[in-house]
Every structure is written in C-alpha cells, then in structure tokens.
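Continued from yesterday's entry.
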Amino acid sequence: MCVAFADSPLSMVMQSARVQRLIEQLQRVRQRVQSHPERTHALHFSLAELRCTREDFDRAMRRGQSKLHRLCGLIAQTYFCGPYEVRSQLVGEVVETRERFLLGETIDPQTLYAVTDSELARRKIDRLGFRLEGRSVFARARLIANLVEYSPEEDRGTGILKLTSRIKGEQEVWNKVVDEIFELDQLVARDKKLCELSRFVKDIFGLKFIVTDGPAADSLLLRLSEREWSEEELKDAQVPWQLTTHSLQWLETKNYQTGHCKRSGWKALKSVVQWWDSTFEIQVQSMHSYFRELQRLNQDSHESFRQRRTQLRSRVAEQIPLFAFYTDLLRWLMGPQPRRGAPPTFPGIVLELSE
C-alpha cells in the first residue's frame, strides 16, 4: 500500500513520479521492517535519481509558491481597490542572546515567481551580524519565520488592512511526509497521551487576511466564496483562464473566531480551498487577534509551538524508533546539501547507494 496525498496539501509538491517512487519505497520497507523486524532489509538509492528527485521537489515548491503569489496578487487587485505594496518580512533571532527582531523590505512581485520565500529570507539573514557588548566578533542570527505582506497604499473602506502569504519550510514538508508514511494522525487519535500534543499545522501554502473586526471577516469570506474572475482580470494577474482559476472551490471552513477559539487563544476564520489545481489554506483574522499573535511570535510562542511538535514526534519515536530514522534519512537524502556526513543507521536496514 502506498501513501495517497490526493486530499492533502502535500499533493501539490508530491506529484512527481520520482518523488512518489521514493515515498512508495520507504512505505514498502517500513511495512516489511515492522512485519519482520528479525530480518535484514535493503534500501537502495541511485544518487543520480536522488538529484533528479530533489530537482523535481524544488520545481514543485517553486510552482506552488508562484501560484500562491499569483492568487495573492489577484485577490489584492480585486479587493484593495487601488495600488498596493509587496514586502518580504522576516522574524529573526540573535543566536547568542535570543533577542527577536523584525526585518522587511519592499520587493518586486515578479521576484516572488522566481525565488522562494525562504531563499529571500535566508539571503537577508545570512548578511546580518550583531555587535554584542564586549565582543569583537559579530553574532549571527537565525531565521524564526518569514512571510510576504501585501498592503493597500490607502484605506478605501474595504475593511481589509493587509494580506500575508506563508510557505511551509521544506524540512517541515518532509517531516509531514514521514507523518503520512507512518499514519501519524491515526496513531495520535488512538493514543490519549499523544492526542494531547496533536496540534499540527498541515498546510504548505497559506494566505491570511487581516481585517478591521469580526464582521469584516465574515463579510470578506462570503465575498470570496461568491467571487468569479473574468478572463481579463485573470490576464492582468498573469493567470490563465481555466475552470480551476475563475473561482475558488471551497473545501472546508472552521470558525475559530467566536465561541470555538483554540486553547492558545488564537482566533480566526480558517478555510481550505482549491484553485488552479492546488490546495491553499485561507485565514481571516481581526486586527486585534493578529497583533496579539505577532506579539507572541516576537517573543517565544513560535519556538514553543516548534517544541510541542518536536515533543510529539519524539514521543512517537520512542514507540516507533523507525519513525525517527526515516525523519533523519529524508533530511540526509533530500536536504539542501544532501549526503553531508555519514548517513543515519537503523538495526536491520542496509542503506545501498549507487551512481
């Protein structure tokens, strides 16, 4: 049995036959190891095939990002009712002091179609150095989060203050692949202790509206659900007219705005839509909730959220050591600089590499 991503945002970046073959091989070996742990099992990889697989994955991520930003541009030109600015924003942290900072710059929308958001952010973060008191060497910074922000130049009474887009980091994508291979959602649902830690972010490509208040959020979601774009409007946004582009197909909406907010206090309307043969998450959030979230992000909530996810995966790895091995293996095989250092090992699995 192979992993099916048809109903998941992962489908956007897992359509490559090479990526599917890699995942199917890992799935088959997982089943064999868990069925016959006393035997030795081989995982064979061609280095040339891995390079092509990595290229396929990169292209898919760029293609998904391009569609996301074209959707953002289309929505901005529709609902901002005038000129708007596009900015690349990042939240960074000085490594030694753990002080947080926000950094942004205006960017040409065309750049977004050619370079990934993470590449933009890392170019900026890698150029930064911070002089600490009493130190002659500059301290380095690390990336905490990055996004692209679309803001109208004037308030035209639409109730929309800004639109942001966010793309999941590639390591998180591969982590989610391992989650799917091991059917982590079902495992967590069956285990009461794990269920307490099951707050996952499963979207890869998402956009968020910041609006004036709750009623403006409800109004915007209704307008989006009813909107149909003409061929001319799509052309202006550099989008081809198709049955899958002239409107959003609504798959799911959850109201975390009133009465059903999450335990963290996070409030928003959260929807999943399909557009241009791709899956996107749309959040609509009031200005008050957004600034509360931004304040927590500039402090430590983002790190705490990462720690909770890491804690859950660590608990799963205690029960299923193969889970941790697969996470390390995909990082080694498919990372930005693959096969640096010795590969991970696991009892009963032989890793075979060929040219």
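--- second protein ---
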Amino acid sequence: MDLTLYSYHRNSAGQRVRTALNLKGVDYTYLSVSDIGWDAYREVNPQGLLPALRIGQRVVAQSTAILEYLEATYPEPPLLPDDPVDAAEVRAFAQLIACEMHPLNNNRVRRFLETDMDASEAAVLHWYRHWIALGFDSLETMLRSRPRDGDFCFGDRPGMADLYLVPQVQNARRFDCDLVPYPLIRAVDEACRRLPAFRSALPENQPDYPKGRPAG
C-alpha cells in the first residue's frame, strides 16, 4: 500500500508519525504542505490540520488515529505493550500530551492569542510555559512511578509514549522553558535522540526545512 504523509517540518504531530514510520521501517512519501499550499491541502484533508496520511486512495487525519492504523497494519516493532494495563498507562501518558498540552500550545492557539486577544509576546510566552510546566510536572511524576526502569518512557525500547514526548520537549526548548526540574523527561529525550529513527524525524532533517537555518 502506497503511503503519503502530508506534514510540515515543524509540525510536532507529524514528527510523531514520521518517527513511528521510521521505527517500523515503513516506506512512505513525505509531502510538505508548504509545497502544495493550504488550499490544496484542505482538498485532501477538510480538517485543515496536520498531519494526514494518504493510504492508497483514502486519507486518515489526526496523528493518534494514524499511529493506531500503523500499529494495526505494521505490528513490528510494537508501539504498545501486550499487557492491557501497561498499554493503558502508555496511552494515558501520550494522551496527556496529545489532548491536554499540545492543543493549548499549538501555532493556531498562540496566533489567536496574539491577533484576536491582543496578547503581548510576553503574555503568550507566559501562557506557553505555564501549560508546559503543568503537563511536565505530571509526566515527570508518571515516569518516577513506573513499575520498571528503562532508557525509555516505559521499558527498554521506545514506544507510543516516546513518540509524543520528544517533540514536546523539543518545543519546550524552542520556547526556553525550564527543563531542569524534569531529569527523567530529559533522560528519555536524550535516549530517543540517540536512535536513527528519532533523529531522521527531526524538523531539521526534513526536505522542507529552510536551508541555512540553524536547528532548534
């Protein structure tokens, strides 16, 4: 089945999917929305949100749905543990990022605060850092209470939780959030970034990343 991923180099939800495709060794075509334009993209995905995955003649939007599809159709290596409770814990960790943190801090929310709510740059940054800290406090506690140790969020190999965490840490660094209080989060991020599947999914390694622009 031919797969085409519609995304953008800095789209963190798209980065989750890129990493999963890399981990599973799945071939795909990367198509940047900056190359086709937003009007053309909305013809593909009426939601107008990134990413979307074309599967043959059909299109699936939302990174969580895409990752579930990939897990069902390309089961090796698995992104979720076999044990149902363990899998639920992994999903809970990932969904804290996907449902509680990312929706409050994404580009369109920050843009709305600036343009429609007349928030200053400092106020928007305060907003961003507040929700990052609140979310990371919970994530760090979840990592501290894990039933088993490992280099990654939940064990000795990366999985669903790690796919969500790495882009969120990356964005936190971009906005100069204080990560000192989160040693476990930083350790997981460092372990993931040592893996080729994660490195090749980074924004600066995408074909639409502006040439001559520093990473970060």
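The chain has a mean pLDDT of 95. The first helix runs from residue 12 to 24. Will compare against the first tomorrow.
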